[in-house]
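Quick one, T. Sequence first:
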Amino acid sequence: MSAFHRAALDDRAVTAPIAQLCAAGVHCLPGWDRSSEYVAVPLADGATILFTGTTLPDGDGGGDDVSIEHLVRAHESWRAEIAHPVDGATELYDSHDCPLPFDQDTAALVAAILQCLPRHGGSVPAEEPGEAGNGQSGD
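Structure tokens:
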């Protein structure tokens, strides 16, 4: 069983949008930044969609990034941006200032990602960090 499928079995915040995107044929790389805070969607034109979120403020008024480590019930908002190697980063979705229920917010995040894919040639499979250069050749 892959790491994604093990994570999808858990009740974790980031697995809901990943499962919805994967069901739509989008390639997702959870934990892209190695701290499990971001999910990357590699695009055909070399850009990458990165998304993460925030949790509800705790007793001290602070919140944490939503990741595969944070429970769904703690979700406050999602944020997504398109990072392009030449053009820099552009915000794609941010619900921080207009909080929505988790299901609605997740659906809006997924819709925003799906809507922008055609402009970038769609998503493409990419190797997870640390898997590149496995030494195999095409011979």
